[in-house]
Amino acid sequence: MSRPGAFAGATVCLTFDVDAESVYDARERVGLSSVSHGRFGIVRGLPRLLGVLDRLGLPATFYVPGMTARRYPDAIRALVAAGHELGHHGHRHLESLGRPLEQQARELDEGLAALDDVAGVRPAGYRSPSWELTAETLGLLVDAGFAWDSSCMGDDRPYVERHGELEILELPVHWSLDDWPFFGFDAVAGGRIAALGAWLEATRGEIAHAAAERRAVTITMHPEVIGRGYRFAALERLLQELAADDAVRFLAHRQLAAEALAT
Ligand SMILES: [Zn+2]
């Protein structure tokens, strides 16, 4: 599974976490401004992203909290209609860590029900809200028959994440390949707004290294973050450049998982 793939270059998986307002639902103190920041991802971010993916003919995986699907059924159905993949990203975007098992189970079940009701999709992949997978949630994923998780970072190639008897295919992520640590900012949590070049340098550099090693790289983005005008313009230029590069191919996570399981 950790051997280089047959493709002589970088396999890029574009993934988008469609958090929208769900991140703010669980907070005790949150104002309309922060909530509207999440909503921007649906109103402006998603249409821009769908447009560029369509223009360049690129596949992507959208990890969607159940509440986002319930609030914005048309937007989520549009992702599916465009041929993109939906993954599970919790229901209320509640972190598993520190929650009783029953709550973790409810978060998983309600997320599944929402994606089924809204889009008729049973997702095969899971991404933990805030990337803090617990042993309990891992057990629930295995029991529910999920094919992969994409929340851990123990390798930079697809690998098997294990805890005791439990194991699942991992399509790994990393904070340096996520737009949130670079640009994420809100009134409560604070954060920083890094220079655009820092994000581009990390993303380009990792893809170049992945090409040299003939491995995959998962890029994580959020429509409300990368969908801002100047950031989106940079993403579009980067994707145009990569789409024209013979040493780069794009796969949805389900395709990467299928290749990893076949080796
Ligand atoms: Zn998220």
UniProtKB/TrEMBL annotation:
Domain NodB homology intervals: 28-251
Protein origin, superkingdom: Bacteria
Gene Ontology annotations of biological process type: carbohydrate metabolic process
Pfam families for the chain: Polysacc_deac_1
Position of the signal peptide: none
GO MF annotation terms: hydrolase activity, acting on carbon-nitrogen (but not peptide) bonds
Protein name: Polysaccharide deacetylase
Lineage: Bacteria, Bacillati, Actinomycetota, Thermoleophilia, Solirubrobacterales
